[in-house]
Amino acid sequence: MAANFCGWSLQSSSLYNFRQPPIRSSFIRSSSSNGNLPIKESFSGESEADVVVIGSGIGGLCCGALLARYGQDVVVLESHDHPGGAAHSFEIKGYKFDSGPSLFSGLQSRGPQANPLAQVLDALGESLPCSKYDSWMVYLPEGDFLSRIGPTDFFKDLEKYAGPSAVQEWEKLLGAILPLSSAAMALPPLSIRGDLGVLSTAAARYAPSLLKSFIKMGPKGALGATKLLRPFSEIIDSLELKDPFIRNWIDLLAFLLAGVKSDGILSAEMIYMFAEWYKPGCTLEYPIDGSGAVVEALVRGLEKFGGRLSLKSHVENIVIENGKAVGVKLRNGQFIRARKAVVSNASMWDTLKLLPPGALPDSYVNGVNTTPQCESFMHLHLGFDAEGIADDLEIHHIVVNDWDRGVDADQNVVLISVPSVLSPNLAPPGKHVLHAYCPGTEPFSLWEGLDRRSAEYKDLKSQRSEVMWRAVERALGPGFKREKCEVSLVGTPLTHQRFLRRNRGTYGPAIEAGKGTFPGHSTPIPQLLCCGDSTFPGIGVPAVAASGAIVANSLVPVSKHSELLDAIGL
Q1: 40 Cβ partners below 8 Å, 6+ apart?
Q2: Taking a C-beta distance cutoff of 8 angstroms, is the pair 194, 521 a contact?
Q3: What class is the 48-110+116-126+288-371+513-568 domain?
């Protein structure tokens, strides 16, 4: 599993307006069926491809790279000068910052129970060197402690900070849900497609393993498996879990994973996470070269199989002819024809902006416009000297100021990542790189309409970033001094809206399990499909990787899809 930790999933280009270092050559070259050809950073004249993908986020790159693996002529268009969307990295003064995902597990795992991103990388023949670890620091109203993953270590923390009743309830919870994990993980995400071919690539192919899982669970477990697509809170309530710490901790995990609390997250997502974090021998992983290494691996896979990536290619609109999506028009007026399909990796709201008025039914447009949104972010990126900082500093820190306000309250939860702890190459010698943020809880309404050059904006920026500064000082200790930071950048919801091209700077749809479902990947417009965090399975690195794979699978014959599954041993 690659956890999302709500906010390690931004979209498109750098959060800050500064001159980027030169793009690595692998990002401005591409391959084609005619051999390796240098590609310009933007298209000139009319061009065409089987499939045009809008956006190089994780979902778009997974989709494009798999299509290339299937032998399709595909081009991925990126508005900015860096690929990666949510997972891109940027560099200032020798500090390499993650703008998005920073906590992963299962990146090197293989087989049916691997997470979707790992399965895509496997299909592309790409490896991703990682550092492993098994703990993070938490700062709660009850106290500060090192939280470890695994089946036994967390019990010690519960005993100390929450008491015997919490230990009993945690044992009860694990005993009920871990057996369900075999059902939740029995169907490889890479086997899913968005048409009836799924009966062959998934249902029939994995029927024996699914049946084996249900038999292993027994009647009671099989009955519990029917709750996989229901809110996780229903499982908690059915077990009569009452301990406040347990309820709060579960809400925190759900919110960090998907941006909603336990009453809004699918049980399948939480059970998958529990199986990855609380089974014997489990570890977390961080790419040695930062989250940008994930992007580089996907780009390598795309190019290896003849796919093309075009940077600085801003899509102005999707072109509709005779009711079908036939290509895209770039901001400079250039037209790129799509012989088979256009795939949008933009959010549902931003995809609407790319379409001509009247192209979609009013009911569809109204459905998109009334879909609730997660709030936005505050960000703090720091580069500083490691002198005076503890040698045993953890890579991740989570600060919860007040349980009573709820984990989804603004200015209440701060997440901190110091990836240079595990990957010193991300900072100059003797330095650390840090990313702190308020995860999807910053109200856009506080910032709407402000002039970014105004004193009012600067004052609000200073006020709303203070909670992150205090959290960093708490995590790093007295050896850290603000004034010694060599790099200090604050991002706001307006930063998100402007540079990440996100409607209202949003994190994504706030669709709660049991109250709604994430849209599928097709649209009312033939040959226009969507992937990313506005589509099934939803928000998060594993989810968007799966969405990209599902779209790619759906655009090729069942026979090719099955051949791929055979080739990678699924």
Answers
A1: 28, 310
A2: yes
A3: alpha beta
In 454-567 the beta strands, taken as DSSP E runs, fall at 487-491, 528-530
pLDDT (tens digit per residue) in 47-60: 999 999 999 999 99
Q: How many CB atoms lie within 10 A of CB 333?
A: 7
Structure tokens at 65: 């790279």
CA-to-CA separations, 141 to 401, 403, 405, 440, in angstroms, rounded: 6, 7, 12, 21
**What is the residue-averaged pLDDT of the chain?**
85
360 compared with 159, residue with greater pLDDT: 360
Q: Where are the beta strands (DSSP E) in 295-395?
A: 308-310, 315-321, 324-330, 335-344, 376-385
Q: How far apart are CA 63 and CA 549, in angstroms?
A: 5
Tokens of residue 53, six digits? 């993908």
Give the global pTM: 0.89
Token pair belonging to 466 = 């203070």
Going from N- to C-terminal start, the domains of the chain cover: 48-110+116-126+288-371+513-568, 150-187+196-277, 376-505
Q: What's the rounded Cα separation, in Å, for the pair 499 and 501?
A: 6
Which residues fall within 8 angstroms of residue 1, CB to CB, at 6 or more apart?
A: 105, 106, 115, 272, 273, 276, 277, 542
Q: How many residues does the chain have?
A: 570
pLDDT at 271: 84
Instruction: Please give the residue that has the higher pLDDT: either 17 or 45.
Output: 45
Tell me the Ramachandran region of residue 154: left when phi exceeds 0, alpha when psi lies from -120 to 50, beta otherwise: alpha
Strands (DSSP E) contained in 361-514 are 376-385, 396-400, 413-417, 431-442, 487-491
Pairing state of beta strands 135-140 and 143-148? antiparallel
242-261 pLDDT per residue, tens: 999 999 999 998 888 877 89
